[in-house]
Inverse folding.
């Protein structure tokens, strides 16, 4: 009884200590990098932290940067749970964003309904874009890394084409038509909108799906031990399909969040510049969040803090913005390491 | 006990996604900020936008800082973010380059008469074609957005003006290019991109193959693609200078490939930033904004509230040093080699190229510039689709 409790305690404490050590390593390596270039790391980190979380405005902005990452982290996490390396969030997010802009910008609807309809459309289109990779995996055994990378590029150019050809804003060819005011989520402050609640609820829903339903159990079983899953009569195909579709819904939601829930542009740029990398960043966030949708929420807030707080390292301490990116990258890699090692360990074992 | 020193006042410069090191638009903004900071004892703070999501937080970071007396946004892409932040910080002063935000008491929109500068480089290109016996001149543009029409129509109009000037001056039509039908003299390509350098290369290569003597860069970084196309033509033929040439934009880009850049249509973003800062320092900012309904236009011989300020000019040998320094700064910043050769070699190559072109070509450009000064409406301003269509019907 006592050992069971202490085992549980250990299981709880171990990842936290691992993360703490990882944060320390990341910060120290970043500090050495700054020292090498003649900046004061203590002042720089303080500027970043205070900038990101030291004021209401800072917190709101960090949360705004975190919102899409919470969703794209789910795409990767739900893939890993089914033993997939799904890196297709990027392209599925583009498609979702385009769908959100089309429904939000060209169709008239009452205020309360419009954002919901546009968000659902975006999520469905995201899932639709995940389908080819799922089908190729299940029926032809095509590795998901190959198919999702290709689909990401197809999505990029397809959406670019749509904006340039059909959905550009008249007189503002650099971007697509913006979502009309009825389709926009209400602004909380800065560039944060109520879409964050939708994303958090979605993350909770995915958690429930994974740990409280039969289909979620099957998905995790297939991911943990495909042989045992087969023996237990679980359907690998169904698990893989579910994982891809849930991931697509998440990525589509991430896209919608940047169109219907991010002022001041409320649309996507023809370069997709306001979306690019949010899908890939979700991979890092998912790893920091220990491949768990709820962990991803906190990891995304941390990541959002880096994204927003980084500018204060430059603004207050003069650290060059390229170096800020490098430091943030080091911190993220250090934080992601424990989970990467865990995944490799699990793969080796199975 | 001595009181702490008064904090230094700041100006904040927020880049668009082009960021620092673009050697044109954004770097010009930082250059102006630097010069103003030095002149007025201020500190310049930079905020680089890595993505469009950074526009609002970057502007807001500057607006919140009590020491910041002016926040400048470089580029019309920041327009929406500027309106948003300036509305929320009505006590702070803002300026936006190329944006159009009229009738806000605290925002100065600074726009430029690019059509006039484009007309002058169009005239230069057409006369250089006449001098070397080429049948065409070219222009490579970015995405077809209204701000680019000014460049296109201005350039075509300038070429047309120059060929008429030649006929009056020498009593005969210009050789070769005047034999090309009017509507085919200027080859023009909208590439649909401001970032894909390959598209610039392909467009310029096609134009050079069609016997264009010079290709005007109206697509920012695509200039490097134009340069590549020119160099690719020149190298196997052992050319040490143009033709073919390309024509720079925004900054003085003549140093990027000395001898092969005919001239640059300079858009003095630096002077705009400097001017706005000066107004804030002198306490005249809001008055000037109000007097001009929020929008100041800088061009050739323009006067803003009684002060003459030139925003558009064609590059000369004299201002090359200033811009070679920009390349030196970029080298320090990126650690990469930017300057193609030593500053002295650059100057002597540019100088040799310029003196190999007969003086009547340069005189004609100067004459057009004077004509523009005395008649501000001389060069057509193509701001709407109707005007563009009307001029395309005449000039192709």
């Amino acid at each position: 009884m006592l050992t069971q409790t202490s085992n549980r305690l250990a299981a709880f404490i171990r990842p936290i200590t691992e993360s703490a050590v990882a944060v320390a390593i990341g910060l120290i390596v970043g500090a050495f990098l700054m020292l090498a270039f003649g900046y004061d790391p203590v002042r720089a980190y303080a500027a970043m932290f205070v900038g990101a979380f030291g004021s209401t405005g800072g917190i709101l902005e960090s949360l705004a940067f975190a919102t899409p990452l919470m969703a794209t982290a789910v795409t990767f996490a739900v893939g890993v749970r089914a033993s997939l390396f799904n890196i297709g969030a990027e392209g599925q997010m583009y498609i979702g964003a385009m769908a959100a802009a089309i429904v939000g910008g060209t169709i008239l609807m009452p205020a309360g309904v419009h954002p919901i309809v546009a968000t659902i459309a975006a999520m469905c289109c995201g899932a639709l874009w995940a389908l080819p990779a799922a089908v190729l995996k299940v029926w032809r055994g095509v590795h998901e890394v190959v198919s999702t990378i290709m689909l990401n590029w197809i999505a990029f150019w397809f959406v670019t084409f749509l904006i340039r050809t059909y959905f550009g804003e008249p007189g503002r060819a650099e971007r697509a038509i913006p979502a009309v005011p009825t389709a926009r989520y209400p602004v909380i402050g800065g560039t944060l909108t109520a879409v964050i609640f939708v994303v958090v609820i979605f993350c909770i829903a995915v958690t429930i799906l994974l740990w409280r339903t039969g289909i979620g159990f099957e998905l995790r079983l297939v991911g943990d031990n495909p042989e045992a899953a087969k023996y237990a009569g679980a359907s690998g195909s169904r698990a893989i399909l579910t994982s891809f579709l849930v991931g697509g819904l998440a990525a589509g939601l991430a896209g919608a969040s940047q169109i219907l829930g991010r002022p001041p542009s409320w649309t996507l740029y023809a370069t997709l510049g306001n979306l690019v990398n949010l899908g890939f960043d979700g991979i890092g966030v998912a790893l920091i969040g220990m491949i768990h949708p709820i962990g991803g929420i906190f990891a995304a807030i941390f990541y959002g803090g880096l994204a927003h707080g980084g500018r204060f390292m430059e603004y207050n301490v003069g650290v060059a913005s390229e170096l800020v990116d490098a430091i943030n990258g080091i911190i993220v890699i250090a934080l992601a390491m424990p989970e990467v090692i865990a995944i490799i360990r699990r793969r080796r074992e199975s | 006990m001595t009181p702490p020193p008064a904090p230094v006042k700041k100006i904040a410069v927020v880049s668009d996604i082009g960021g620092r090191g673009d050697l044109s638009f954004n770097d010009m903004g930082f250059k102006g900020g630097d010069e103003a900071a030095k002149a007025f004892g201020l500190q310049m703070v930079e905020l680089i936008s890595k993505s469009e999501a950074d526009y609002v937080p970057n502007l807001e970071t500057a607006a919140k800082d009590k020491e910041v007396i002016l926040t400048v946004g470089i580029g019309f892409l920041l327009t929406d973010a500027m309106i948003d932040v300036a509305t929320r910080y009505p006590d702070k002063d803002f300026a936006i380059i190329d944006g159009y935000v009229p009738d806000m008491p605290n925002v100065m929109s600074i726009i430029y008469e690019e059509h006039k500068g484009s007309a002058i480089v169009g005239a230069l290109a057409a006369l250089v074609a006449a001098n070397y016996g080429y049948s065409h001149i070219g222009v490579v543009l970015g995405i077809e957005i209204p701000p680019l029409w000014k460049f296109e129509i201005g350039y075509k109009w300038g070429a047309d003006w120059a060929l008429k000037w030649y006929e009056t001056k020498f009593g005969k039509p210009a050789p070769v290019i005047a034999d090309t039908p009017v509507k085919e003299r200027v080859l023009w390509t909208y590439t649909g991109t401001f970032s894909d350098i390959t598209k610039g290369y392909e467009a310029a290569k096609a134009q050079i193959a069609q016997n264009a003597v010079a290709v005007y860069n109206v697509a920012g970084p695509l200039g490097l693609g134009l340069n590549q196309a020119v160099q690719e033509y020149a190298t196997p033929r052992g050319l040490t200078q143009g033709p073919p040439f390309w024509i720079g934009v925004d900054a003085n880009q003549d140093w990027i490939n000395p001898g092969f850049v005919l001239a640059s249509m300079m858009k003095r973003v630096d002077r705009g930033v400097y001017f706005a800062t000066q107004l804030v320092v002198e306490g005249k900012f809001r008055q000037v904004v109000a007097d001009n309904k929020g929008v100041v236009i800088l061009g050739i011989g323009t006067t803003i509230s009684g002060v003459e300020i030139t925003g558009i000019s064609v590059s000369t040998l004299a201002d090359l040093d200033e811009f070679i320094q920009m390349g030196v700064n970029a080298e320090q910043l990126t650690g990469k080699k930017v300057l193609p050769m030593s500053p002295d070699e650059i100057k002597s190559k540019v100088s040799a190229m310029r003196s190999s072109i007969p003086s009547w070509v340069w005189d004609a450009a100067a004459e057009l510039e004077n004509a523009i000064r005395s008649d501000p409406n001389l060069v057509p301003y193509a701001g709407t689709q109707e005007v563009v269509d009307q001029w395309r019907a005449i000039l192709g």
